[in-house]
Amino acid sequence: MKIEYKLFIVLAAFFAPVGLAYGIFTDWKEPVGPAGLFLSAGLGAMIAFYLWATARRLPERPEDNPGGEIAEHEGEYGFFSPHSWWPLPLAGAAAICFLGLAVGWWLFIIGATFGVVALVGWTFEYFKGPHAV
Amino acid sequence: MVSVGTIVWLSSELMFFAGLFAMYFTIRSVEPDLWHTSTEVLNVPFATINTIVLVVSSVWCQLGVHAAEHGKPHRGDASLLAVKNWGMREWYVLTYIFGAIFVSGQVLEYSELVHEGITLSSTAYGSVFYLTTGFHAMHVTGGLLAFLLIIGRTFTTRHYSHAQAAGAVVTSYYWHFVDVVWIALFATIYLLK
Question: For residue B178, which of B90, B64, B54 has the smallest C-alpha distance?
Fold first, then answer.
């Protein structure tokens, strides 16, 4: 996973010195630039650190090996939902909640009630019954 | 897979808070006098204790992750007092309680500040104070809901699967992230007065 984390280190390595240069040239009087640039460096560094820490835990993957074969990539990848209707009612409930902020709190409460049902339905969709993942 | 997606999303959350920090520092740099008078009413010792509560909750959360990674969803037949046998569920309930204390503390602090005359629409200071801490408190509340769902999931299946543990682990990533953001916010608002 060397390539992956190096890609994100590049982001961090670019934004951190740029933030420093920005701060020096503006005499640290303009705070938005350094805050934004240093946290952009954080955006890259966070993902890079995670990928690096994961790479250390895992053995070398077939895609890291130039001589790797497709067949080496067998086994379970994880669980992927084939389809789900739950995001649709959840989005509808969120829309009602948002409308409620403009119209009145009574509408927000109605939206939140639908939201709870949709959220629980989505979270538990594959975690119940005989075929639970 | 779930964890990589969570980290990428959290990095976008970092940029969301970057916007809030930028807003705070900008308005502060144009209104230094307002900051001087407004920050005097902040209750720093109270906020410090509240911060410690949130940081400690992260420790409990990590102990829950440790249990989840070892495939231990709950304590089984052991007594509740036997902390050594605690599973993910028990540690996450403890994390939830600490997180709830933090949010309640925030509410208490808000009510004190409103009594002091600092509201969302009173001054620029009030606006940025409530926007930054309020968005953070909403994130903590969202984390509390996530803990409820993750704890609830452990009751629906007999077998504690890898997917279940992955859900518990990514919730902990989110919790630690929110915790770190609070430490930065606390330092910005309460310490850099």
Answer: B54
Question: DSSP class of residue B188?
Answer: I
Which tokens go with A98? Answer: 């948002």
At CB < 8 A and 24+ separation, what contacts does B136-141 make?
B136/B17, B136/B178, B136/B181, B136/B182, B136/B185, B137/B103, B137/B106, B139/B13, B139/B178, B139/B181, B140/B54, B140/B99, B140/B102, B140/B103, B140/B178, B140/B182, B141/B103
Give the global pTM.
Answer: 0.92
> What pLDDT sits at residue B23?
93
Question: Whole-number mean pLDDT of chain B?
Answer: 94
The residue to which tokens 């309640």 are assigned: B104
ipTM: 0.87
Length of chain A: 133
Closest partner residue to A36 (CB to CB) among B22, B153, B161 is B22
- Contact criterion met (CB < 8 Å) for A120 and B159: no
Do B90 and B74 touch, CB atoms closer than 8 A? yes
Q: What is the pLDDT of residues A79-117, one digit of tens each?
A: 788 889 999 999 999 999 999 999 999 999 999 999 999
Mean pLDDT in order along chain B per 10 residues (193 residues): 91 95 92 90 94 97 95 90 92 97 97 93 94 96 96 88 92 97 95 83
Dist. CA B11–CA B16, nearest whole Å: 9
* A3 contact B CB<8A: no
Q: Is the pLDDT of residue A25 over 90?
A: yes
A26 shares contact with chain B (CB less than 8 Å):
no
Q: How far apart are CA B101 and CA B107, in angstroms?
A: 10
Q: Quick check: B99 and B144 in contact, CB under 8 A?
A: yes
Contact partners, residue B48, CB within 8 Å, separation at least 6: B186, B190
